[in-house]
UniProtKB/TrEMBL annotation:
It comes from Albidovulum salinarum. NCBIfam families: iron-sulfur cluster assembly accessory protein. Residues 3-97 form the Core domain. This is Iron-sulfur cluster assembly accessory protein.
Length: 102
């Protein structure tokens, strides 16, 4: 996870007064075949928990192979501010970057 993403997650947690983790999951669907599900959540027993800068990122065991070597970053652009996934496993993706194909 990129430092910007950890920093933004810390800001979100500070503003909400809760210490939630960022869940990054892969689901079927989207215009390219798979789509990312990025949300605040609590750890589940089968999650891989990545920690950095006092923050946690969760990846479930089903999503893990699709996200191997991926980098989660935070982008604040004209189209909006959001967490983004730079996934080297994706062979193509949609224009908005929320869905991808392998």
């Amino acid at each position: 996870m990129a430092p910007r993403a950890f920093a933004r997650l810390a800001e979100i947690n500070a503003a909400s007064g809760e210490a939630k983790a960022l869940r990054v999951a892969v689901e079927g669907g989207g215009c390219s075949g798979f789509q990312y599900d990025i949300r605040l959540d609590d750890p589940a027993p089968d999650d891989l928990v990545l920690e950095g800068e006092g923050q946690k990122v969760l990846v479930d065991s089903v999503s893990l192979p699709f996200l191997q070597n991926a980098v989660i970053d935070y982008a604040d652009e004209l189209i909006g501010a959001r967490f983004v996934v730079e996934n080297p496993n994706a062979t193509s993706s949609c224009g908005c970057g929320t869905s991808f194909a392998i």
